[in-house]
Amino acid sequence: MTPPRVCSAALLSALASSSIISVVGCGGGDASPDAPPDVLVVPTANAAREILDTRLAFDVTARTGTATITFGPSATQGATLEVGDLSLTTVGVPYAPGIATTASARPTIDLALAPSDAPVEVEVAFGYQLHTGYQGARAGFTFLWPYFCGNLFPCHSEPSDGTTLSLSLTGVPADQVAVYPTTMVAEAPAYQLAWSIDAYTELPLGATTAGTALSTWYRPGELAAAEAGTANLVAAFDWLERTLGPYRYGPKAGSVSVRWGAGAYGGMEHHPFWHVSSTSLADQETHAHEAAHGWFGDGIRVRCWEDFVLSEGTVTYLAGRALDVVAPSVGAQVWAGYASQLAGLPASNLVWPQGCGAIDVIADDLYQEGPYIRGAFFYRAVALKVGTARLDEALAAFYAARAGTAASMTDMLTTIREVTGYDPTACAAMWLTSTTKPAAETPCP
Predict the structure, then answer these.
(1) Are 382 and 431 in contact (CB under 8 A)?
(2) Three-class secondary structure of residue 151 per DSSP
(3) What is the pLDDT of residue 39?
(4) Fewer CB within 10 Å: N-end or C-end of the chain?
């Protein structure tokens, strides 16, 4: 790591008196009068300096953690981390509070990192809080989506940002089991990281043709629900691997029953061990939906929240498609349920807002059924036009080209056109941007 260099006596004195910034050093005393002055390295905002890797260790009893963060090379100085409501203990370089640019901006710190053509590592020690809502750690589980990672560890929460991750936990009660990934070697959005701690029993489900071992973790009294919900999970996961391409998040995956609380249902894409609300544990569509996020939403990140439909619409379709293939009677029930949800949507439902970076997925009401259900029926309409096999080929081509990166829904339309020969622009307008709601099974024009 290149240490910061402070070469102004006045600034050196000012920084030394700061309660939050430590002066690391000053160099360049032998430079000639004609030589360029040393670069002044002070805490500087640079949110574009990407995070390549995040190594995390937590004590869940003491509620403390350390993060070893590897930043990528940068031609400009500085770096920025979201720190939410963390209590920072030590930071390995000088830092200062970031300046909030909007009322909704999350707390950040800016770091004193020099420009570098090599990765730079920074270690941060901190304490974290328990939350009563779904904005970080709760008693027994974490929930970081969409942008609350900073309440658990220093991070970048933009959905387009990907980092490899590793995690270790200590302080887990002796009578409970912590389910979490120790490492994610493929890039992931920060909200993908999660743990859950409860009185779990693991139920091995079998392995796919590619060798991915699947399990489900259930709590006392939940065995029957877990068996019902995962009855076709291995077959559906196998279809996803064979149809779309290799799974990126390791040789073992599966679902974890989590007590989210009264009224909470569905799941969350915390691959490789995605969470399913205990109230949805018996629902096969929920398990298939969260499994499909290993390819879209996680395996391929969204460019920005406006492209939310690329994640949720695609995996809603894939859950129905996979179950159609491996368990046709279940698939038929799933699509009937989707049709019922579609009928209940308002015609003006927000699905695919145009632009990038202007939408808050929560505050602007994008997190609702429209992107899921109208998105799924957009793909269904394309399949009715070109055939399900041809659409499968387009989805596989998209994954082959984009896995590990961030992409947009516009990119998906381009791939569908290139692979199938059909331009889906008018179909996307009908299903994704029009305020007129088509009926279920309406084909593309």
Answers:
(1) no
(2) helix
(3) 58
(4) C
Instruction: Measure the CA–CA gap between 63 and 74, rounded to whole angstroms.
Output: 33
Nearest to 312 by CA among 342, 268, 257: 268
Q: Which residues of the chain register pLDDT less than 50?
A: 1-37
Over the stretch 199-228, which tens digit does the pLDDT of each residue have? 999 999 999 999 999 999 999 999 999 999
108-111/183-188 β-pairing: unpaired
pTM of this prediction? 0.91
> How far apart (Å, rounded) are the C-alpha atoms in residues 150 and 140?
18
Tell me what pLDDT residue 191 has: 98
Tell me the HSE value of 125 on the side-chain side, using a 13 A CA sphere. 5
H-run or E-run covering 123: strand 120-127
Contact 420, 394 (CB under 8 A): yes
- Which helix (DSSP H) or strand (DSSP E) does residue 373 occupy? helix 369-386
Beta carbons of 259 and 278 less than 8 angstroms apart: yes
DSSP-derived secondary structure for 14-47: HHHT-SS--------TT--TTSPPPP----B--T
Query: So what's the pLDDT on residue 11?
Result: 30
